[in-house]
């Protein structure tokens, strides 16, 4: 019996060591792939940045030459002055370079998030299996549970999840500057510069625009989002306000019931209705039981096809609702999540724009972040 125990233990150790070696190879391969992904992203974006830099240097040299020519014109030679001035004007307007795509997001910065998800999943699985070996738990995680553990460890999608996964500083790495587009603003929305919007009773005589909302008190950001991660904040100053995104091809001339954010399959939003928060998509709502937050953080993960709304207070982030399909889960009784599972990913077939709906007559918002004293000043307006 002694020899049998020793023999079985030896064979078991050999099998375990072999499996650990294979698991280490899997992790090493994943590490190489992630490192390669970062290096590829670095090379690609450095190349783009260097091309843009060379273009700007050439343009600067050309403009400097035109400026020098203009300064050398004799003071009384009007015709020569006008010719050189026209040459400078053409040089300033000619061959405008498109904005580099890396200005908004370095798309390889999500690697840390992915590796943290793997680490969290491994920690959870190891603890559960160790408890099982010691007779403290039931069977281990099956493959589906493992996938869900990895997803939920970094992307919780329960509306009542109040855990702060990251500090606000983490999200500020993906800060996205939003400017409101006056060409889209409904006539009952007054804009304050490009950051503030307030619903008013008297219509504003905005010029005609094919992209202006005419049946719904909404306004869009001029910014387009089509890859990477984006984070912005909105101050809810007064009234009922909805914050969300729409597809680039969204029709602002739709009837009121179809045009409102979240009442169609081309937009989604988080609404504050004076009593609680409500998430809307495809005409289906999900009520969120959370206290009021003056500041709402919006985190869009384009490649992950996910949109998360946070309540922000004292640099702490409270997850209010995440909109993301969960294909690994069974059919749920929740009609809102079923709608998300069926259609939400289709939003990301288009470029997206930030969108805002000022629902009540006293609705007022400001693209943040703002200091507390700034809010009171705006409210007195």
UniProtKB/TrEMBL annotation:
This protein is called: B30.2/SPRY domain-containing protein
Q: Does the keyword S-adenosyl-L-methionine apply?
A: no
- Which GO molecular function terms does the record list? zinc ion binding
Arranged from A to Z, the UniProt key words for this protein are: Metal-binding, Zinc, Zinc-finger
Q: Where is the B30.2/SPRY domain?
A: 158-374
Q: Which PROSITE patterns match?
A: B302_SPRY
Q: Which organism is it from?
A: Anser brachyrhynchus (Pink-footed goose)
Q: Does the keyword Metal-binding apply?
A: yes
């Amino acid at each position: 019996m002694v020899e049998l125990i020793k023999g079985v233990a030896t064979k078991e150790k050999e099998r375990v060591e072999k499996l650990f070696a294979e698991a280490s190879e899997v992790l090493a391969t994943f590490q190489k792939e992630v490192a390669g992904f970062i290096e590829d992203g670095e090379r690609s974006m450095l190349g783009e940045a260097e091309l843009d830099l060379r273009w700007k240097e050439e343009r600067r040299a050309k403009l400097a030459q035109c400026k020098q020519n203009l300064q050398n014109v004799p003071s009384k030679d009007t015709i020569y002055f006008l010719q050189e001035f026209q040459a400078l004007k053409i040089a300033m307007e000619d061959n405008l370079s498109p904005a580099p795509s890396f200005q908004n997001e370095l798309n390889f910065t999500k690697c840390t998030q992915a590796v943290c998800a793997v680490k969290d999943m491994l920690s959870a699985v190891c603890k559960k299996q160790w408890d099982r070996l010691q007779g403290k738990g039931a069977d281990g995680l099956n493959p589906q549970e493992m996938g869900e553990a990895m997803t939920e460890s970094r992307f919780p999608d329960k509306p009542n999840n109040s855990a702060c996964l990251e500090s606000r500083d983490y999200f500020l790495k993906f800060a996205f500057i939003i400017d409101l587009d006056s060409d889209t603003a409904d006539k009952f929305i007054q804009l304050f510069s490009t950051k503030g919007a307030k619903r008013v009773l008297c219509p504003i005589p905005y010029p005609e625009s094919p992209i202006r909302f005419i049946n719904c008190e909404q306004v869009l950001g001029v910014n387009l989002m089509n890859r990477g991660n984006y984070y912005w904040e909105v101050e809810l100053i007064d009234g009922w306000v909805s914050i969300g995104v729409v597809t680039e091809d969204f029709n602002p001339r739709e009837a009121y019931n179809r045009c409102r954010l979240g009442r169609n399959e081309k937009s989604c939003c988080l609404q504050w209705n004076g009593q609680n928060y409500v998430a809307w998509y495809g005409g289906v709502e999900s009520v969120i039981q959370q206290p009021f937050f003056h500041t709402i953080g919006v985190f869009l993960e384009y490649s992950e096809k996910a949109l998360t709304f946070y309540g922000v207070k004292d640099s702490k982030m409270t997850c209010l609702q995440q909109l993301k399909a969960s294909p690994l889960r069974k059919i749920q009784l929740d009609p809102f999540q079923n709608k998300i599972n069926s259609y939400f990913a289709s939003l990301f077939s288009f470029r997206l724009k930030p969108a805002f709906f000022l629902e009540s007559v006293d609705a007022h918002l400001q693209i943040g972040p703002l200091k507390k004293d700034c809010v009171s000043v705006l409210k007195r307006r």
